[in-house]
Design a protein that fits this description.
Mean pLDDT: 76
Low-confidence stretches: 1-68
Pfam family, one: AhpC-TSA
Radius of gyration: 36 Å
Strand order of the largest sheet: 5-4-3-6-7
CATH class of the largest domain: Alpha Beta
CATH topology of the largest domain: Glutaredoxin
Protein name: Redoxin domain-containing protein
Number of strands: 7
Number of domains: 2
Structural class: alpha/beta
Organism: Micromonospora humida
Keywords: Signal
CATH superfamily of the largest domain: Glutaredoxin
Number of helices: 5
Helix content: 40-55%
Order of helices and strands: HEEEHEHEHEEH
């Protein structure tokens, strides 16, 4: 004969047991959920840290090198890339922190030809202190290359600007034009220079 004294086996005892079991399961699930939230909520913070840190590395447009010898900040005037006449990639940012001379020339220009010998003579001497970079335009690539060979300019960087992108960027309206950028990234001269003036200015910048 089955005893009726045990509440767990009777009809009235079963709901109580089920409630206890449900409470136990709910507690277990809440604990598991609480453990899962930690790593998930922390992940976005790590992802945001990268873009947030980026602006701090950006600095005003100034070409002055840092006292610690770290890479100089790139001024606006040197924020461009191009291809040289021999097809090599060129980035003006690599010249930041030094005075730079951009020489805008055309292969058919008689004035450019008269200045080419001076450039060929002094450019190698001041390569590390005052880089002189030719910007060839207003002509065909074959003629530009012939000009470089004829006037022995192979030892200097010569940009292929047949499309005129840099000529427009710096508002060059005639050839031959020398554009001089100082150490701080400021354009301090834009216009004609004869061989003597060019040599004197480059020597002063190097000093």
């Amino acid at each position: 004969m089955r005893s009726s004294s045990s509440p767990s086996n009777g009809p009235e005892g079963r709901p109580a047991a089920r409630l206890a079991l449900a409470a136990t399961l709910a507690g277990t699930l809440l604990a598991a959920s609480a453990c899962a939230v930690g790593p998930t909520s922390a992940q976005p913070a790590a992802e945001v840290a990268v873009p947030v840190a980026a602006p701090s590395s950006a600095a005003p447009s100034s070409a002055a090198p840092t006292p610690t010898g770290a890479p100089a900040v790139v001024p606006d005037a040197l924020r461009f890339t191009a291809r040289t006449l021999d097809g090599t990639a060129f980035s003006a940012a690599a010249l930041a922190g030094r005075p730079v001379v951009l020489w805008f020339w055309a292969p058919w220009c008689a004035t450019c030809a008269s200045q080419a010998w001076t450039v060929a003579e002094i450019a190698p001497k001041y390569r590390d202190t005052v880089p002189i970079v030719g910007v060839a335009g207003l002509g065909e690539q074959k003629a530009m290359r012939s000009f470089v060979t004829e006037f022995e300019l192979g030892g200097t960087t010569q940009i292929d600007d047949r499309a005129g992108a840099l000529w427009r960027r710096f508002e060059i309206v005639e050839q031959s034009t020398f554009l001089i950028i100082d150490r701080q990234g400021k354009v301090v001269h834009q216009g004609f220079l004869d061989g003597e003036d060019l040599t004197r200015r480059v020597a002063a910048l190097a000093g």
